[in-house]
Amino acid sequence: MSGTLVLVRHGQSDWNLKNLFTGWRDPDLTDLGVEEANAGGKALADYGITFDVAYTSSLIRAQRTCQIVLDNVGQSDLETIRDEALNERDYGDLSGLNKDDAREKWGEDQVHIWRRSYDIPPPGGESLRDTGARVWPYYLTEILPRVLRGEKVLVAAHGNSLRSLVMVLDKLSKEEILKLNLATGVPMVYKLNADSTVISKEVLGDMSAAH
């Protein structure tokens, strides 16, 4: 009996548009972000999947994406579990800053290290390893058991919280995960064996849109 895990990164947020570090701050989707979420939902509807449960973060951009996807597959009232374990990486002192302003303040090289190293966090924030340290236990205790029971589970979350999951599912190294960008609103459909290994992965959309 195989279960299905679908991961969707939220659509563009207002702060994505303004080139700001967002992290745990809570801006809403832009009009484009709503379109991206609708596109992901339509792709899943065309794929013919319905879900047993949905998980999302405590942040509105992921919650709205989750709801838009569920609306598109005809499951507007599906049980949806929200938990900050699935929140975006916390950018600490960078949160709310324009990325260009951050480079002026700390220097291009230092900001690049914070953004693209695996285990060096920005001041007051989380590294990708830190993000994984809260995402993985939640996945193992709350999400994975339902998939292993044969359920179809939707997770609508964020670029870095989902990269933490993809790293494990796709068996990527620290170097490989740093090069991976997840497209907004593009569903990734994993089929899992009863031992939690991946049977198949399908990406329902245009990965060239990744940024």
From TrEMBL:
An MF annotation (GO) of this entry: phosphoglycerate mutase activity
Keyword Isomerase: yes
A Pfam family annotated for this UniProt entry: His_Phos_1
Alphabetized UniProt keyword annotations: Gluconeogenesis, Glycolysis, Isomerase
Pathway entry: Carbohydrate degradation; glycolysis; pyruvate from D-glyceraldehyde 3-phosphate: step 3/5
Catalytic residues of the enzyme: 10 (tele-phosphohistidine intermediate), 88 (proton donor/acceptor)
Domain of life of the source: Bacteria
Site residues (Transition state stabilizer), renumbered to this chain: 158
EC assignment: 5.4.2.11
Catalytic activity: (2R)-2-phosphoglycerate = (2R)-3-phosphoglycerate
BP-aspect Gene Ontology terms: gluconeogenesis; glycolytic process
Residues that hold substrate according to the record: 9-16, 22-23, 61, 88-91, 99, 115-116, 159-160
Matches recorded under PROSITE patterns: PG_MUTASE (PS00175)
Family: Belongs to the phosphoglycerate mutase family. BPG-dependent PGAM subfamily.
NCBIfam families: pgm_1, PRK01295.1
Function summary: Catalyzes the interconversion of 2-phosphoglycerate and 3-phosphoglycerate.
Description of how the protein assembles with itself and partners: Homodimer.
Name of the protein described by the UniProt record: 2,3-bisphosphoglycerate-dependent phosphoglycerate mutase
Gene this protein is translated from: gpmA
